[in-house]
Fold this protein.
Amino acid sequence: MQPKNEDDMISVKTDKKDLEKFYHKLETSADLDPLLERIGDSKYVLLGEASHGTHEYYTWRAQISKRLIEEKSFSFIAVEGDWPDCYKINKWIKVYPNSEENIQDVLKQFERWPNWMWANWEIAAFATWLKQHNKEKEENKKVGFYGLDVYSLWDSMKIMVDYLEKEDPETAKLAKNAFQCFEPYKARDSYASVFRSAREGCKDEVIKLLKEVRRNAHKYDTEKEADLNAEINALVMANAEKYYEAMAGFGDDSWNVRDRHMVETLNTLMDYHDADAKVIVWEHNTHVGDARATGMASSGLLNVGQLVREQHEEEGVVLVGFGSYKGSVMAGSSWGAPMKEMRVPEGIEHSLENFLHESQPKDKLIIFDENRELAEAFREKTGHRAIGVVYDPNWERGNYVPSKVSDRYDAFLFFDKTKALHPLKIKPKGELTPETYPFGI
């Protein structure tokens, strides 16, 4: 996904001043009106982020989501997170039985690195708003919060066995067989090593379980959304096997398996809700922005944004990217390393971030198809920064993805200067509530 040579870093050539008239200011929630108008009746709105550790990306996604829920009756939020952990947030905001007393206790259960992605005050504030919103709603109108990712193999296995032992003993036998297939390798250093060593037939055990759960899901009704919880956990088990098997082969297939899983989970969620369901997706730009408009395509990689456009274009799909010129971010220096606040350098020369800063050093909203000249200007290939959970500010050039930005996204939120988000261990200055963020914190 990184530029292979300097030719991949072509800049936007249009005169910067010529485009200023097309930018929308971005200061308060009311400034999102043009984006809400662009979304219209679309059923799929995918909101990106240029890092997993930036305050403004989380809070502005929350502001957009809040307006979509209140004004356009969006049904649920689906995020780049593990299903079992995110389902605990879902239970809390819907006030289901046996949920935690406060949101901090829920978020502290996010243990898989990088846990700051969800165990932070920005999420705590938004989840609190969602719970308040849901209190006045009928059961089938409460907004949900679900995880799309494929990483929670062990947690999903345990949940399946524990639940099915109580509710469906016959299917529980299949779950135990699937669990036992991988159990001897659980202590190994990585999932990839599990799949190098696991006996043949593990995949068959998991697929058999998934089919049986889907066949019997209508019976699982002793807990709210129990049928959905069972089906998605089984789906995670089935696709985790494919994902880590691909990872063990050190190829690019694992990326495609993961993004296909997230779209399959998204489609399952949409099918579970009523025919009028609308979804908001929160994921990194590398998943949200259409891969066909980036250097990913030449490597045979696809992503969520591309697949959702291909599968649901007629129902309305809007992809929204995020980016910033400079600031700070929460990340780790290596995989599993302690999180720390890092400096985000100024966008490099010829990059999208540098262009938007020099043309107008202010926060802004851009709707690419509002004007043909605007769309054409941002269709020229340029480097667009992507910061991962592992980050080295000293190796900036390798963090830019060659992109035709107006093909990659329908809209873009640019922030001239951003700051790191606030993990639960690091309290923000001032009160972080749905009424105060992203303004004044």
About this structure: Residues 1-7, 187-198 have pLDDT under 50 and may be disordered.
